[in-house]
Design a protein that fits this description.
328 residues, alpha/beta, Spore Coat Polysaccharide Biosynthesis Protein SpsA, Chain A, 8-stranded mixed sheet, 11 helices, 8 strands
């Protein structure tokens, strides 16, 4: 089984060299690599759709330009699809070797931890390192570039549409790659609140369902409610014990994650990571509340239609239209 690997690489990302080198080392004869870098100022959803339109093989593999895949990552995806013709999509995880820095280490290790403990059937998809059968991808309309004009949760939403169409998705923790992105506190908060939290809340409201996928499991929800509720109760009742009890509960619920932080970065990362974890959950609660309000305010608005998957001819026409007359 051959794969078509699509890498969105607009605006010349500094990590593209390492990314492509690792992919080429993992490819097998018959695989093709499609690096989409000719369409600047386009969303990842749009760029991935363009790359998929060029693909010749039956299974698409999406890899972000800041991910360095392990040597066996593509073979693991290939084997999963070959062994199960009914499997439509699969995705993996970041590894446990994040770039230096407290926020970067926390953010990438959180993703690693959640995905490592979420193996098996999934309702969503991850385009950082994930595969999908091309026929199903085209059938559901690909990534929704109209709804997600910037890096948001376009891959999560694609997975929800695939699941709703009856297609099976699995999370394979053994499929791993190193994430090279450097996070700071500002970028983390913007991602958690604006790019992930609010859109996710609106999608759940529109679908009128409660998801338990990945970081929406019961202990994640209890953690979020405790992070917000314990300080509020302590302040209202003037009983510091409520805050201490809440802190203890959060520590117990997330002991395996905090142990991972300690192993990878010692006491400093464990302590700072626990604080960032609390901030992460508080931000998610605030985003969920605002997302619900936004959904209610726009309840009467018609949903945006899904854009068609562009053909190679569409790509050439659009690219020519974006060029100055002297360059056409």
């Amino acid at each position: 089984m051959n794969l078509s690997i699509v890498v969105p690489a607009t605006n010349e990302p500094a990590t593209i060299g390492e990314c492509v080198t690792a992919i080429r080392a993992a490819m097998a004869p018959g695989d093709e690599l499609i690096v989409v870098d000719e369409s600047t100022h386009r969303s990842p959803a749009h760029v991935r759709n363009h790359g998929a339109a060029k693909a010749r093989n039956d299974v698409l593999v999406f890899i972000d330009a800041d991910v360095v895949v392990r040597r066996d990552a593509l073979d693991r995806l290939r084997a999963a699809h070959a062994a199960d013709p009914g499997l439509v999509a699969a995705f993996g995880s970041y590894d446990d070797r994040p770039p230096p820095g407290i926020v970067s280490s926390f953010r990438n290790l959180l993703h690693h931890h959640v995905h490592q403990h979420g193996a098996g059937p999934a309702q969503t998809f991850w385009a950082g390192l994930g595969s999908v059968r091309r026929e199903a991808f085209v059938q559901v309309g690909g990534f929704d570039a109209a709804r997600f004009p910037r890096p948001m949760i376009e891959d999560v939403e694609l997975g929800l549409r695939l699941s709703s169409a009856g297609h099976r998705i699995v999370l394979l923790p053994g499929v791993q790659g190193r994430h090279l992105k450097r996070w700071d506190l500002r970028s983390m908060l913007i991602s958690d609140f604006h790019d992930r939290g609010i859109p996710w809340a609106r999608i759940l409201m529109q679908r009128r369902e409660v998801s338990t996928t990945l970081n929406l499991g019961w202990h994640h929800r209890v953690t979020a409610l405790t992070v917000v509720g314990a300080p509020a109760i302590a302040l209202a009742t003037r009983r510091p014990r409520a805050l201490a009890a809440g802190t203890g509960l959060v520590a117990i619920l997330n002991r395996r994650f905090y142990a991972l932080l300690f192993r990878r970065g010692g006491p400093r990362l464990a302590f700072c990571g626990a604080a960032l974890h609390a901030l992460h959950h508080a931000t998610a609660v605030a985003a969920m509340a605002l997302g619900v309000v936004a959904h209610i305010r726009r309840a009467g608005a018609a949903p945006l239609p899904l854009p068609p998957i562009p053909t190679d001819g569409d790509m050439e026409s659009e690219q020519a239209a974006s060029m100055p007359p002297s360059a056409r």
